[in-house]
Design goal:
The chain is α/β, with parallel strands linked by helices. The protein has 2 domains: 117 residues, NAD(P)-binding Rossmann-like Domain (Rossmann fold); 193 residues, Dihydrodipicolinate Reductase, domain 2 (2-Layer Sandwich), CATH 3.30.360.10. 31% of the residues lie in helices and 24% in strands. It contains 11 helices and 15 strands. Strand 1, helix 1 and strand 2 form a beta-alpha-beta unit. The relative contact order is 0.16.
Length: 354
């Protein structure tokens, strides 16, 4: 096992597609507590364009025998999550794994148990917990500006009516389709805010011609006094609100997506005081009545903070801090996705019994 005396974690990344290139390498590169040593790319060496100091290898198994590697970020297609994470844990590595955690909850349970037996950590990259709009909603709810929530609606809509060529997410493979992809975010956010629901209903569809996997869903999570409505689709040509929340004291409506992803795609590094800040035109609208005080107007969106995820990874491994996103929570997201597919198949509201 590597020593952490120097407080620098030597890291490797498996895969350098959108996930590795956009969501992981920039944060590991800019955080002083990490050193990226190796990137696994089977066909190219794209990572060297931005990070010329890296070693590029073709087979991830070289990482397993490298005693310097403390942490491995697994940024591969969903079908490879389970075997690669398992191999890394058995080799004594901590692991960051892209969402969705695993194609099945049984696989997630096996990895959680293995991590405990190896005294290693699994960090599931549920980065949307650090979107500025979501952080703002948490602050609004914590301050009781809406009162008792009666309805929560969350959308992640896109307009991509044509099937992309050779996209693994659109192939008929385990954990393919939009519910595993975007649903992992929306379900995680709702459960983080409100806890595990009592029941669930799902309508899951293939809307695009020739689609082999689901490209639309509406999942309803039923709580004691309200419900959460989660929707995503690829045939939405006019944007709907990202969030709509109604309570007995007010409402909050928010359009637009957190700007961090678009900035990362442009190649910007996640540093500086302006990182994660949203333009005023996208700020959400709050209407609230607190006793005799009434308010209606724009609420500034808190700055998004994806770097917080890797700061927590560092603090957990080096400083023994508490994990912000426990693997058990990510496992429960998979269980809810599994239940959603069952609900859709049976066309029934199903109790959540785990």
């Amino acid at each position: 096992m590597a020593s952490y005396i120097n407080k620098t974690l030597t890291t490797a990344i498996i895969g350098f597609g959108l996930s590795g290139k956009v969501f992981h390498a920039p944060f590991l590169h800019t955080h002083p507590g990490f050193r990226i040593k190796t990137v696994i790319e089977r066909h190219r060496e794209d990572s060297k364009k931005n990070y010329p100091y890296l070693e590029v290898e073709k087979d991830y198994r070289v990482l397993l025998d490298d005693p310097e590697i403390d942490l491995v970020a697994v940024c591969t297609p969903n079908t490879l999550h389970f075997p690669m994470v398992k191999d890394c844990l058995l080799a004594g590595k901590h692991v960051v794994i892209e969402k969705p955690f695993t194609p099945t909850s049984l696989e997630a349970d096996e990895l959680i148990g293995l991590a405990k037996s190896q005294n290693r950590h699994i960090f599931v990259f549920q980065n949307r917990r650090f979107d500025g709009d979501f952080l703002t909603i948490k602050k609004i709810l914590d301050n009781n500006l809406l009162g008792d929530v009666k309805e929560y609606e969350s959308h992640f809509d896109r307009f991509k009516p044509d099937l992309p060529l050779n996209a693994w997410r659109d192939k008929d493979l385990p954990a393919g389709g939009i519910l595993f992809d975007l649903g992992s975010h929306l379900i995680d956010q709702a459960v983080h805010l409100f806890g595990k629901p009592q029941a669930l209903f799902a309508d899951i569809r293939k809307q695009r011609a020739g689609s082999k996997v689901d490209d639309y869903f509406e999942v309803q999570l039923f709580y004691k006094d309200f419900k959460a409505i989660l929707k995503a689709g690829m045939m939405v040509n006019k944007s709907s609100p990202r969030f709509i929340i109604h309570g007995n004291k007010g409402s909050f409506v928010k359009y637009g997506l957190d700007p961090q992803e678009s900035e990362l795609v442009k190649g910007r590094m996640p540093v500086g005081p302006a990182w994660g800040k949203e333009k005023e035109k996208y700020w959400g609208t709050l209407k609230s009545s607190m006793g005799k005080l009434n308010f209606e107007g724009k609420i500034e969106t808190l700055a998004g903070s994806y770097p917080t995820f890797y700061q927590n990874v560092y603090d957990v491994i080096v400083n023994y801090s508490e994990m912000m996103i426990r693997p058990e929570e990510a496992r429960d997201v998979i269980k809810l996705i599994e239940l959603a597919f069952e609900s859709n198949s049976r066309k029934e509201v199903l109790d959540v019994q785990f």
